[in-house]
Each structure stands twice: as structure tokens, then as C-alpha cells.
Amino acid sequence: MTKGNIYRVIDLARMFAVHPNTIRLYEKLSYISKAQRSKNGYREFTELHVLQLQICRKIFGYPFTKRAIRKTGDALLHAIAKQDWQMSQRRYEDYIAAIRNEIQLAEQAGKILLDWSNTSNTQDDNTEEKRYNRKEVAEIFGVTVEAVRNWERNGPSMQIIANQRRLLTIRRKC
Predict the structure, then answer these.
(1) Residues 114-146 pLDDT 10s
(2) What distance in Å separates the CA atoms of residue 101 and residue 69, rounded to the nearest whole number?
(3) Which residues does the UniProt record annotate as the domain HTH merR-type (predicted)?
């Protein structure tokens, strides 16, 4: 139960539908401010902690978050936990920029796939192909080399080809 605006670990865990250890972990990782302790040693959280946890759950509430977004989210949460509001504002802007960058990369990948799906299976003899290694593909799409390996292993086998117009197209290996 809460006393006024004081919350226990279990209260916050129920409020955010997470395990109590998740609340403790967020405190340990400095994603939220350190809680004051009562006379009996229990943590006492305030409305500020509720706000910090709302932000944590917005950032970490998704099953898949790319490294760039997670890294900027971590920096944002650390600034909020320290209650450094000017730094928090800068970190927030970095976080939004990282999300916009990921959206741009996703749109680029979608365009490449759309171009690929619209191409015919026949190639002109004049078309000059450039093959990319895993590292180059990872740089183009802004992912790790391991992600490209996973695509090869788990997805349809594809070649990435650049034609003379310097547009990327993806073609299945036969």
C-alpha cells in the first residue's frame, strides 16, 4: 500500500506490470534515482520515481531496440536519474535524433526492397554488378555484421547488387 505519495517496490512493480527485481535493477543501473530508506530499511519511492519508471518503460518496453537507440536511451535515463534537467534535455534530443535516423534507415531499406520486388528476374548484359561483403552491407543498413549473418542464416538467401544508376537492389540467389 502507499502512504500518501510513498510507494514500495511491489507497488511500482504492479503499477508497471514488471517483476519487483526489475525495479531494483533499474535503481542499481541508475535508470531511476536512489530511493530513500525507511527506518526498517525498505525502499520508499516517490512520484519522481513513478515518472522515471514511466520513461524507462517507454524506452525499454519494446522487445527489439537497436543498439543506437538503446545507447542514447541509457544516457537519457542516467541524466534523468541524476536530475540534471539540462543534460536530460540534450540527451532527449539525441534520443529523438537516433529514432529519426532509424526511421530513415528503415525507409531506405523499404525502398530498396520495393525496388527489388519491382525488378524483373532478367538482367541486362550491360548492367555492372558490385557485390558487397558483410561489413559493407552492415554499414549501408546501419546494423552489425552479426545481424547480416543472421539475415543470411535465417532469411531468404539474397545478394545485394548495385547497378550503374548507383541504386542498391537486392536479388535472390538462384
Answers:
(1) 877 777 555 555 556 677 888 888 888 878 888
(2) 9
(3) 11-45
Distances 37 to 7, 48, 62, 98 between C-alpha atoms, Å: 11, 15, 31, 37
Give the structural domain span for 87.
64-105
> Max Cα separation, the chain?
81
Read off the pTM: 0.63
Mind listing the pLDDT tens digit for each residue in 99-115?
999 888 888 888 887 87
Any domain includes 110: no
Q: Is residue 112 part of a domain?
A: no
* 168 is a domain residue: yes
Q: Looking at the 3D structure of the chain, how many domains does it have?
A: 3
For residue 173, what are the contacts with CB-CB under 8 A and spacing of at least 6?
Answer: 157, 158, 159
